[in-house]
Amino acid sequence: MSSEFYESDVDGDGHADTIEYDQHADGSSDILVDTNHDGVADYEGSDTDGDGRIDYVAADTDHDGTHDVEAWDKNSDGSFDYANVDTNSDGVADYSGNPWGAA
């Protein structure tokens, strides 16, 4: 590979891309999200494993190969599965935020 690959400056601002993409100097790519395209990052995260996803999105804390968000919502209803458990069949999820059961 040529050294030009490592010294690329895609946006032409005079800063090498390898420096721009690791502003925290932690060895991982920084991911900037600008949803309204105003030039200011709305969110900044790191990609330590190089999968192109911000770490909190791609977290796999038990290292089973399944991202935590996918593991916690197996039925894809948008709620973590523990929030839907109703072990006493009273019609109120066990984790409802109401410690006294149904109102």
TrEMBL record:
InterPro entries on file: TSP_type-3_rpt (IPR028974)
Chain intervals with Basic and acidic residues compositional bias: 12-27
Transmembrane segment boundaries: none
Region (Disordered): 1-53
Any one GO molecular-function label of the UniProt entry: calcium ion binding
Compositional bias segments (type: Acidic residues): 1-11
Highest rank taxon of the organism: Bacteria
Protein name per Swiss-Prot or TrEMBL: EF-hand domain-containing protein
Organism in which the protein naturally occurs: Longispora fulva
